[in-house]
Amino acid sequence: MNKAVKYIFLMLFLAFCFIFGSMAGMNGILQFRETQLLTESGRAVVESPVRAWSGWKENEESVNTYHDKFMLTEEQIADVIKCWNSRETELIHNPVQGQISMEDAIQVGENWIAEMGVSKGNEQGTEMLPYSAKATLGVGEHKGNTGKQLEPYYSFWTVEFSGQSRKIVMYVNAVTGKVWRAKVSLYDDLPEKMPYENLCLFVEMAGFTEIDAKSIVVNKDGTQAVLEMEDSLLYGLAEYYYIPFSEKGYYDIQKNGINNVEEVFDKGYMEITYEILPNFSSK
Fold first, then answer.
1. Please, what is the end-to-end C-alpha distance for the chain in angstroms?
2. Distance of CA 146 to the CA centre of its chain
């Protein structure tokens, strides 16, 4: 009797060992296969944070045209810019249907540089070329995101050009293909005067028309220019940050004023930022 009981317990023990051993073995095989597949493909397939763009035909009659096919209203643009500027992190993703490619984004950047005249410095001018270019596509991520897919026009290509004497970073909307923010850093051949007129050109290239250069308002110390657009939810802003140097060292712009800065303006560092912003005081 005792031998029979021992035999039964032994069989049960072996059965449990076989069952759990089989489960562990199967999990090991599945994990190995998963690792192998990920290694071969190089990445895991995950859901894009933005959906494919399929609604441009609905806005076909819109008067606000920012792309040959894709159009956004001023309300949409204002919300997109607000979301992008308030992002906590950036979620990188691949382009979806309706978004421009990396090659297109870099081409947009090259055209922007040429049109804005930042490929050269002053009249003696130093070519920016040769330069390196890189671009990444991402959408802003905020605290408390539910994981719901956004419209594709919330994504931006961050395009960066680096040359010997300057660096340019611009944010190209992935659907409209327009530059809505750009930062130009100059290390040599600084302009002889502030290029306030470039703000009009920037706003026009961003997709807006009927721009009046007389509407540009420059602040007292000459470091900021604002271009209001009549009856618009948006406006253009340019900010200038500069550290000129003389033979005696740092030029104190706050103490000596902007009028004498031309004497040493060809030496130093300058940063110009252009951007389209929502005008919350408008209608």
1. 94
2. 22
Q: Are 207 and 66 in contact (CB under 8 A)?
A: yes
For CA atoms 100, 79, 230, 272, the dihedral sign is: negative
pLDDT tens digits, residue range 80-100? 999 999 998 899 999 998 899
Give the phi and the psi of residue 11 in degrees, each rounded to 5.
-65, -40
Domain ranges of the chain: 56-278
List all residues 6 or more positions away from 189 whose beta carbon is below 8 Å from its beta carbon.
120, 121, 122, 124, 125, 126, 165, 266
Ordered alpha helix ranges (H), the chain: 2-41, 74-85, 102-116, 198-205, 253-256
Residues 6+ away with beta carbon under 8 Å from 163: 128, 129, 130, 131, 132
| pLDDT over 80 (residue 65) | no
Position 160 confidence tier, pLDDT thresholds 50, 70, 90: very high
Give the angle 56-171-44 at the CA atoms, nearest 5°. Answer: 75
Residue in 150, 157, 65 with CA at minimum distance from that of residue 108? 157
Q: Which residues of 52-79 are buried (b: 16+ CB within 10 A; e: fewer)?
A: ebeebeeeeeeeeebbeebbbebebbbb
Q: What is the pTM of this model?
A: 0.71
Residue 63 has pLDDT above 80, yes or no: no
Alpha helix (H) ranges present in 42-191? 74-85, 102-116
